[in-house]
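quick one
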Amino acid sequence: MGWKRTLVFLGGLLGAVCAYAGPAEDRSALIDHYRKVFPYISFESYVYGALTMNTEARRQYDDIMAFPPFAIDMDEAKKEWEKPFKNGNRFSSCFPSEGRNVAGNYPYFDNATHEVITFEKAVNICLEKNHEQPLEYGSAEMGLLTSYAKSLSDGMKVNVKVEGTGALAAYENGKKYYYTQRGKQKYSCANCHIDKVGKFIRGDQISMMVGQATHWPVFLSGTEVTTLQKRFQACNRNIGAQPSKIGSKEYDDLEYFLTYMSNGLPMQTPVFRK
Ligand code: HEC
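structure w/ heme C:
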């Protein structure tokens, strides 16, 4: 009997291992899905989201980005980023390579604190370490500062890693959030950005989620700086669902999952959105 049980056990184990789709498999399955829906849109173009589906909107976007209305805001943000703290240190002292070509490594999972560290959180950790007041998550101040700081990584390819059990658990938690239906209309993020990608909803065409995390913060209408998690809140509100708090574990894990899907795509921050 013993060997039979062992065989059944090994068979079960093998089945479980084969059936388990890890982050890499999730990502290729999604890319395959979008390739089927949009055979003429290249993977590199996914960073433009809904703009890839509308030539006129894309032309307007290019015109606006040639002379962005937020250029002055960026000059101010640069000064903030470079201003020394009371102790003489600067933001750049908290980041590898003084903050150049690093933003694509965020969010990462910190095995010491067992949490996802978004770029915003890294900024606040830096402030606290230097005995400065942290910035409010989702605030214009945080948005402007990170818009400039992340622009130092323009062109860097998103390079989010999910390694180890803690990281995988955070990824799975974010993934679960993405596929859970909520709100009065019982919609999940996936129902729109995967199932209904390219369809119109109240005049807006729905973007693919691969590529969505490459360009935050954005300037809505060219003036209103908006962080990625603020966009999560807006999408939750649009379906009558209770948004989570910006900087909460729920949203940080969601951002971790979502950003992993943009791996390999170049960053550009900030950009214009309608
Ligand atoms: C009812 C459909 C719907 C649902 C559900 C939904 N979204 Fe959206 N989302 C949209 C539309 C429409 C836009 C604006 C057009 C676009 O860029 O896709 C948008 C935009 C976004 C963007 C910005 C894309 C960009 O490049 O500017 C992100 C990021 C996003 N959604 C994430 C999410 C997440 C995460 C969830 C789940 C919490 C979610 N969405 C749920 C319809 C939806």
